[in-house]
Amino acid sequence: MAWKLVKKKSVILPLDEVERRAIVHALKVTDNNTSDAAQALGIGRTTLYRKIKKYNLPP
User: Fold this and answer.
1) Are 30 and 37 in contact (CB under 8 A)?
2) Which pLDDT score is estimated for 2?
3) Cβ distance 19 to 13 under 8 Å?
4) What whole-number distance in Å separates Cα of residue 31 and Cα of residue 16?
5) Going from the N-terminus, what domains does the chain have, and what CATH number goes with each?
6) Residue whose C-alpha is closest to residue 20's, from 35, 36, 41
7) What single-letter DSSP state applies at residue 59?
8) Which residues have a Cβ under 8 Å from the Cβ of 38 and sit 6 or more positions away?
9) Which residue from 33, 38, 55, 56 could staple onto 20, CB 3.0 to 4.6 Å apart?
10) DSSP output for 13-57
11) Residue 52 to residues 10, 14, 38, 43, 55: CA-CA distances in angstroms?
12) What sign does the CA torsion over 17, 22, 23, 29 have?
């Protein structure tokens, strides 16, 4: 049933890509303030640092 809600031409991104984009956006809107970005994402700073490394994002 849920598939009927998705248009045939729409793209479903993998969760890793959605997470990476959310991190990039949070860092951008917080001027790369990792404490604020982590808080906005609802994760700890250590977790954010680990994910930054996982996705090879610039520090």
Assistant:
1) yes
2) 54
3) no
4) 22
5) 12-54 (1.10.10.60)
6) 41
7) -
8) 26, 44, 45, 47, 48
9) 55
10) PPHHHHHHHHHHHHHHHTTT-HHHHHHHHTS-HHHHHHHHHHTT-
11) 28, 17, 11, 12, 5
12) positive
- Cβ neighbors of 24 (< 8 A, separation 6 or more) are 57
Distance CA 47, CA 2 (A): 31
pLDDT of residue 8: 66
| CA–CA distance, 29 with 42 (Å, rounded to integer) | 15
The structure tokens 């849920």 sit at 2
- Cβ atoms of 52 and 23 closer than 8 Å: yes
